[in-house]
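Problem statement: downstream parser choked on a complex file, so we are re-checking the raw output for the iron/sulfur cluster run. The parser issue turned out to be on our end (a line-ending mismatch), but while we're here, posting the original submission so the record is complete.
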Amino acid sequence: MTISDRKHILQNNSDNKTEEIKNLKGMIFDIKRFATGDGPGIRGLIFLKGCPLSCKWCANPESQKFRSEIIYYKNNCVGCGKCIKSCQYDAINEDDSFGLVTDQAKCVNCGDCVEACLHDARETVGEEKSIEDLLNLIRKDRSFYDNSGGGITLTGGEPLFQCEFTVELLKAFKRENIHTAIETTGYTSQECLAAAVDYLDLIFYDFKHIDDDKHQEYTGVSNQIIKENLLWLNNNLKEEKIIIRIPYIPGHNSAVETQKRMYKYLKQFDKIKRIEIMPYHRLGAAKYEGLGLDYELKELEPVKKKDLNHFVELGEKIGVKVRIDSK
Ligand code: SF4
Ligand code: SF4
């Protein structure tokens, strides 16, 4: 085989690989254009489906399962029953409290009921999109992102749950010189984190509770991996790229003593830019109903940003920078 033959084969292999990557598909449940607050400037937010946690306060319950599913909006429903008739799988049942519930075990996500509903009361959440699809979408708004010093933020769900796809997507954005941020639970393998980190300009890292037993009770998983990954990140980053996000949930992690211990723990990490306290809201409550799920925190009152200002002072005393909310 001549050198030219070898070069030709290598070129073909590399072209095939590039094509393969472009066509790699991820499960996406939302895309928000022109968003602010999740990173600098104006940004495109890409929401990836699938999460290893199930936080009691999750505002995006439709993000948790790694597959598309049907969500039902009871307020739009006029009770015509067209969806029930359209379903060949007998997957829609009437329920006194939820209205029409989709039996996820029977549903094959054919979308017939969504088509049949003339009142926008049913929607398919979650769609496969390729890296090329997402690049094309973001390219359209590129000038807004560039002129504002913005970029893209991957969120979810847990974006690193779809590790291979997310890493290749980040690489693709970096090849186009787009600023990249991620919002992560930190609950992933170190290998995945290591594969992603070089392609990230900013990392929003959730820290939900300092105590492992409480963390397990409220999120369904231990915080050990999250702590280990934070340490690994801190040791391997060259610049301050981490913004810690603490969801402030009354009765769960809201005690001053708990917050104090979290700030003291986080103080050791020198790659943290700041801590953001995210006040509890219940904007996701209707989605639980739409998915036929019970929302345990439905009685919990939303928290006002102005009521948390004392945590900024507490942070100052301890020696960490605390901001309330992301803006
Ligand atoms: S998506 Fe298809 S299978 Fe699922 S509830 Fe609707 S009609 Fe039935
Ligand atoms: S088709 Fe739409 S409006 Fe009619 S019962 Fe089903 S969800 Fe409700």
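For whoever reads this later: The chain has twelve helices and 13 strands.
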